Amino acid sequence: MVDQSKFKNGLLRVPFVQQYEVRKILTVYWTSKIEKYWIESEG
Length: 43
What we know:
Blueprint: E1 2-7, E2 10-19, E3 22-25, E4 29-31, H1 34-37
Antiparallel strand pairs: 1-2, 2-3, 2-4
């Protein structure tokens, strides 16, 4: 799974594994490829 947030001119992405009620972060990285990863939610 991946959590992400728009940050300045890119995205801050945090891939993680959910194990029971604990999230284990695999890495944290920044990317400028907003169009590739960001999907606007409807509603």
